Every structure is written in C-alpha cells, then in structure tokens.
Amino acid sequence: xxxxxxxxxSKLEYKTVxxxxxxxxxxxxxxxxxxxxRLKSRHCDLQITDAQTLEEYxxxxxxxxxxxxxxxRRTPIGGVIPAGKTFIVDRSETAxxxxxxxxxxxxxxxxxxxxxxxxxxxxxxxxxxxxxxxxC
Length: 136
Prior knowledge:
Keywords: Metal-binding, Nucleus, Zinc, Zinc-finger. One of its GO terms (cellular component) is nucleus. Residues 4-76 form the DWNN domain. With 136 residues, the chain is of the alpha+beta class. The chain has 2 domains: 2-76, Phosphatidylinositol 3-kinase Catalytic Subunit, Chain A, domain 1 (Ubiquitin-like (UB roll)); 93-135. 37% of the residues lie in helices and 24% in strands. The protein has helices spanning 26-37, 93-99, 105-135, and strands at residues 2-8, 15-19, 23-25, 44-50, 63-65, 69-76. The strands form 2 sheets. A 4-stranded mixed β-sheet has the order 2-1-6-4, with helices on one face. A two-stranded antiparallel sheet has the order 3-5. It is elongated, with a radius of gyration of 31 Å.
C-alpha cells in the first residue's frame, strides 16, 4: 500500500490518503481528498502544492510519487476573481493630496489658507517658546 500525506493550509496536522501503485494522478488525489473530507466538487476545487518544493501541481494528469507530502488549499470553482479596485501605492505627500482633490476652487483656496494658517501658528509658537527660554 502506498500513501500520500496531505494537510489543508489552515490545519496543523497531516492526514493520509492510501492507494496502490508507485504514483497517483492529481485528479485521483483530488477525488480521494474530496471524498475523505466530504467536500462537493460542484462547490470548490482543490489547489495542490508539494510541501517540500512549494511547487503547485497544475496538470491534472501529473503523477505524484508515493510517500509525498502535499498542502491543499480549497478554492472556488471558477477561481479567485480579483476585486478590480485600484489602490494608491505611492504614499508621498503629493500623491495623498492629489487623491483628495477638492471639488471646487473655493474649497481649494480654503484648504490652502488653512495650511498657511497652521504653519504660521506653528512657527509663532516655536518663536514664543524660544523667546520664553531666552528671557528666563
């Protein structure tokens, strides 16, 4: 009797699938794992990866040698669909400011004015602090 150790990526312990012969095809391995785990083939597919080399088995007719260890990941039948959203990768100040572009010119002027007032107040407090330290 030959066997292959498998574990789901979220589990800690390996389980065993037994078969006769020197190897098993990927399709047969998936079928045995789904039967043993009571998974329905119409709901999900299994992604099988070699535990030592981390190479994913893609061809359904590939032969997996006996006494191998594999990692199993359950995936949706149609595959994973990307969300299609674009996120800002550049986090520089200009990129962040451009992502919050104001709607109108009056709002833009208000934002610029508030930044100017903030910088004036900050520098005023710094000057007052220096003046206070030198006078005491």
